[in-house]
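Task card 7
Instruction: Convert sequence to structure tokens.
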Amino acid sequence: MFDRDQFLSSGTLMMIKDHRLLIGTGQRTWMESPTNPSQPTFYFPDFFLNKQRPWFQHEHCFEFSVQEFYDLLNHTHSTLKSPEWLAPTPDQYQWGFKALQNMFQSKELQKGVPYVFEKSASLMDRKRLLNSISSLLRFALDRPILPYGFWSEEEGVLGASPELLFRLEPGQLTTMACAGTMGHHESLESFKKDPKELEEHRCVIQGITDSLTPFGEVQRGELQLLDLGKLVHLVTPIAMKLPKSPNYAALIEALHPTPALGTFPKQAGKQWLCDYEKRVPRKRYGAPVGVIHGDEGSFYVGIRNVQWNADGMALGAGGGVNAQSVLDREWNEIHRKLGAIKEVLSLV
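Output:
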């Protein structure tokens, strides 16, 4: 039987297909690789995939629809003191932006994603966590977001990703290029035709296609809009057939980070990502997250989240930059994303 207190003490939440959730509670056993397919195996590494035991299984697992789980939590929103957020300073972001522009001019890169954190000394206690989870599920009832998270008494992460890294079903892989955020545009049509946004989106499509080509023939769908309320993104569905059993680790390493979170070209931007990490440690921000359940796997790009530990909470946000980017517009986009995360997770 599902135990809410146990869930809030040591729990995991992951969206799978058909608007359903896998929920893990109780003791967590970490492992190097997914060795026991008889029960769901969750995946929460760091961004650079250096964690030696990034997979884990729970003592108990349950599956619910989003509506069923929201009702099961039976939570009346608590009035809590609003966290005091320390706004990010532009210094590090400007360094990353200018470094990228130099690399664009030298033709080393075509795209990169600088990021920032907004921090608070407020703690993520159980009341706040329950508020945030309930708020996240309410939002997921109406919007095409991908809820995910895991936590213990010491640390945790909770988020609402817009971006599928990949989903595997027997013989079929689906993913998406998600890049380009509506901002200063007067209309959806002007957004869809914006040269900067289209070039950013093209780089992501190309990067994902290049990463998947060794696994088979890649099929690309039509450009679409992903409407998340305060944020609207450009999205292109991508799919391919997989004739043999998938190697999850190989697929993750091939795709992560896509140009939507990393750089394009991928290999040429590794040093820039490492240099930025030294200035602004990202921990799990942008890392792949996911779960293997039966003969299927669901993996997402771990953005739009809050991370926390005994020192407080941190909200991460980034945005794609290319040669046509304007610093002030990109900085404003960062703040829109931070505001959206606070609203979705009831951290305002």
